[in-house]
Amino acid sequence: MTMTGTDIVELDRIAVQEAVRLVDLATAADWTRDTPCAGWDLRRLVAHMTAQHVGFAAAARGAGREPEHWREPEDMSEPARVHRSAAASVLATFAEPGVTEREFTLPELGGGFPGGRAVGFHFIDYVVHAWDVAATLGTTVDLPEHVLVAALAVARAVPTDPGRRGPGFAFAPALEVAEGSGPLEEALRLLGRSPGRWPVRS
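The structure assignment produced for this chain is given below.
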């Protein structure tokens, strides 16, 4: 699947907006729930998501080397509000002309990347994190089929080297994908998530 810079920015926008919608569903009782991210409750997951938005926005502006942009917020007393603000900031930054032609410095990934590829990293993160939040809340992700197909294409390109998967890395080791799996389930399993462990609550 070939994507232009404009395509990946739009796909990212859709994924981020869905993640915002899902985070906004959380109630006060939900923030301490366990998530598919081992060892993280929902508040910590949303703090991480917020920091990534701020960090990627900084990277798009040429400030990705500065570690303060990647730190999780100290005040997470209102997680949904803090996350919503950070999401709006990164989407506004990514919408700027020429963003996919810029060089992004992403310290967690080991250096500089072309903007289009960097936005692709952000995109797959937010498809997966949208699902993480939905799974925590016992609900489902609502993303169009073309977004899920694009996410699967990106997931298939993520390196499977064991030295880059597991604790301390963005994704766990890949899991076996059953024949007939849809694009979201396949993408999740390729990135180490196990959808069957997180049933939807009625």
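Interim note for the steering committee: The longest strand covers residues 103-106. The chain has a mean pLDDT of 91.
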